[in-house]
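ok trying again, last paste got cut off:
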Amino acid sequence: MKDGYYLSAYLHIDPLDHLLDMNMGRHDQNLALFHKSGSEVRLVRYWEVERLTGMKQHAFSFYDKSHAEQLIGRLLGTCGLSLEDMAEVWGTPQLQTCEDYIPDLSQLTYHSMAHLFSAVMLDTEPFFNGQILGLAVDDSPDTLLDPHARTKPYYSGCVVRRGEVEMFPVSSPGPLWYWAMRRYSLQPGTLMALSAASTSEAYMEPFGTLSVLSDRYDGDVEAFFRALEFIDGLTPADAGTRFNGFDPRFTERENKISMVMKHIQAMSISIMERNVEEILERCGLDASKTVLALAGGYVLNCPTNSHLMRKYGFAGFMAPPCVNDGGISLGMGLYAFYKKMNHASFRFKLESAYAGTTDEELEPLLRSYSPFVHSVEKMDSGQIVKDLIRQPVLWFDAAAEMGPRALGHRSILGDPRDAGTKDALNEIKQREWWRPVAPVMLESELGEWFEDAYPSPFMLHTFTLRGDKRERVPAIAHLDGTARVQTVEAGVNPSLHEVLLSFYEHTGVPMLCNTSLNDKGEPIIDTLEESVNFALRKGIRVAYFNGIRVEFRNHSDYGETQPLTRRVRMNVLNGSEKEAAWKRINPHGIPADLLKYYKLIVERNPDRTYDLTDAVHVKAITKEIRRFKAMYAKQLD
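nice, full thing came through this time. structure:
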């Protein structure tokens, strides 16, 4: 491979999907810009499209190649580059400049393999010189570059020994959580939090053995659904005999969801344990000499990650901050380098999560908001401690973090010693009162505060607070005394490290509450102006922007009540252009509600030919759509 810039683009381009405001291909779309110099590969910049459009888990299609190239050109321009400067472009069929980066897809899905390599190649030192057990566990793959993905096992595992990779199918808990999300209309994070928040627990045996190799369950599925029916049928009269009673702080529905999710969590951990134990035994691995590498949306389940590390005693842990589909372009790119450099020992290490957007144009922005600005001054470590003790502060620093969690560059920070801080943060974020708040802390003090803890820079682990510490930080302690921790080193995040150190010196507590800088249903904020809008809408008095303290005033005079419109528009067609596009793509007028099912049929039958412009063909297609719609509705019931 020649030296230069390489772009990995996990985007979706389809005119019909664009017109239908849907995407059957890819959500959490993202792009990774790499630079290769000799054997050194470096991640230059990482963009998650949701941050640019404001559409959380961005799952909308670009209309055409030109539409996608406009966005890419704009992003590369911030680095002084253009598409013409790219040595190669990978990942999206309409944009790619070659195909030799794609792996052999006869056994495993490309989507899952991209997840896998986003974890196992996060640091090439253990990859080429050590031993890694890798697992990629999420819900389901996209089919854009792998049209037969739905016919293969969805999830991948691997063992890496000094650069030699052996891959194989594994089982994933992901579909269990997708099922619960659909059943209860709640996001996995909310379901996980509710599971731990309520004390209600059903008196019942575990579900039994369950394997999930795709969207089909193998094993004792009937026991699984019998357990759900058991919980659904509980009444207050069953308290003390069939369950321990409804937690009075929650509704009956919330308590039942909590009981179900406790069992789904237990089943999920069982599935992951079975994966690990089968691989350790089959491959003859010693966990104490093996790094555990995880990726896929399920890896946001911190208790599972920590459980596996504790139970098996792995030598280390690797996972990207963007473990969900927001990390696919990272994995696609790292696999491409692995393949195209002939598996040579190239060097790569993700040094930090901070590869996203930067924004430094504060002074002109504050001039435009001058009626709301009380004062502007450089950050003083003593002053910020006073601010934090008074109320939560907005924290915006340098390049945005990758992934779905705030890692100290786009955050709201607060005092963990005050239980009211959690309530204040949940009110600001419009979240349920019982949602936990995570701590960010000095890595050097981790062992003094948490049991059996190890560095957790990407907030992917849950540790137990030491007994004598719990009462000191009530805002971050879960009901069971655990917390989802992020650790900070001075060399990786110097500004936040300085704040944490100052807070520790003043209070004796080396941590702060840390929640993401975004409103309900909104992606994490990307720019300074979005942050100012947030502060003024939410009544936040003090914000820190790239080391500058800004105190706001006149919040009640700020007329905006909604998040600021983000800077990338997805609807690029005006009324007449959209009408013309509909006539060209769908000349026989199949109704839009049926076309959505048509897209499902196409995805499930990749070898068939469909032509919406042929009248005879459309008649047959419409009949097939109606049959499929009825069958699909029955499956959902």
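cool. The chain has three domains: 114-350, 362-553, 586-636. The longest strand covers residues 40-48.
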